[in-house]
Amino acid sequence: MTFACLACRSALAKRDDALACEACGRRWPVVGGLPILVADPAAYLHATSERAEDKKRVAFAPYAFAGATAVERIDVDPTQLASITAAAQATQENFRAVDAWLAPLREALPRFERRSDVLAEADLDRLCGYGPFGTFDHLLRDWRSDSDDAEKIARATAIDGRAGVALVLGSGGGRLLTEIAPQCNEVIAVELSYLLATASRAIVEEGAVIDLFEVRMRSVKAIADRVTRQALKGRARRENVRHVVADAHAVPLKDGAADWVIAAFLFDVVPDGRRLIDEMRRLVRAGGRIVVTTLFGYENDDLWTYYAPEQLIAMIEAHGFTLEEATWSEHPLLASPGATRRYVGQMLKVVARRSM
Ligand SMILES: C[S@@+](CC[C@H](N)C(=O)[O-])C[C@H]1O[C@@H](n2cnc3c(N)ncnc32)[C@H](O)[C@@H]1O
Ligand SMILES: [Zn+2]
């Protein structure tokens, strides 16, 4: 499968550190091996870098008082101080990993002019998906060795063994990819966060093991739970998976390119679900299928956009799909390492076939 130009949908060809469009002359950067196929790559790269710095500041803010002078001043209990120091050090290590993943992006930055008019604060998240936000939680939840969440979600979402091209939109840390890849000829992972795409690519495509610390200051069962080292790894390297940094609303593939288009837990994080379903309709071939899994956890109302389940189903049917499955299951998603409360939410999985 070759990627298509976002501007004119012609096939792209690899040229040095870019994907080039013969038809319209546009070049799309490839950074750290990842094609960056978003509308405004310069804005994207700068936003990602700047957001990472913001998130770093936020992550370290709680530990600021652990510095020596502050400690003397506020007289922290030495027992507490030990926990706080361990957490601060682990956070520092984690950001060292983030900085290493971001290194290729930062090296590329000088070649892309930063335009302040497209980098309004409110745009940063929209431009870079989860960006570094939630990266550790996502990766840990997806891949930590003592959890079978990845497998559960994959089983709940999985396609049914018919081979072909599967497109996973908002692929995150990559837990679905590794599970569905053996059933497919090819899997294309579309993810807007450079960091998540980088980590997912390393684990899934290269079989890498990523070391991260899990830091749980507010949710611990025992002192030993506060900071634990996690070696994140998939089950096996998958050679038929390819990652691209792209917006799920404008995917760099031709119409009808996929047999399966899967949006797992993406519908609930995009601002307008209809645009996502529009794009899924464009991408799936006639007779192909889409899978949408989403959460309905109304009590946790700051997390997802409100749609009722029947509205989602009606929306899918109105796009020319025939409903094949709508099933509910309990989801383990919010029992994430960072969660302070255990929500038991309901996950809806919808499978629909493009009828025309
Ligand atoms: C809740 S996570 C789900 C991840 C994965 N599908 C899973 O089930 O583990 C949502 C993911 O969508 C990504 N995302 C958010 N907006 C996006 C967009 N417009 N295009 C592509 N990915 C997006 C986020 O960066 C995040 O990785
Ligand atoms: Zn073009």
Would you kindly provide a written description of the structure presented here, covering whatever features stand out?
By secondary structure, this protein is of the alpha/beta class. It has one domain (12-354): 3-Layer(aba) Sandwich (Rossmann fold). It contains ten helices and 13 strands. Strands 9-6-5-10-11-13-12 form a seven-stranded mixed β-sheet, sandwiched between helices. The longest helix is centred in the N-terminal third of the chain and has 31 residues, at 78-108. It is globular, with a radius of gyration of 21 Å. The two termini are 23 Å apart. The model is unreliable at 334-339 (pLDDT under 50). The site of zinc ion (ZN) has 8 residues, from loops.
List its salient traits.
single chain, 356 residues, alpha/beta, Rossmann fold, seven-stranded mixed sheet, four-stranded antiparallel sheet, 13 strands, globular, binds S-adenosylmethionine, binds zinc ion
Strand content: 15-25%
Binned, the helix content reads 25-40%
Question: Which small-molecule ligands are present, each listed once?
Answer: S-adenosylmethionine, zinc ion
Provide the gyration radius in Å. 21 Å
- Give the CATH topology: Rossmann fold
Mean pLDDT: 85
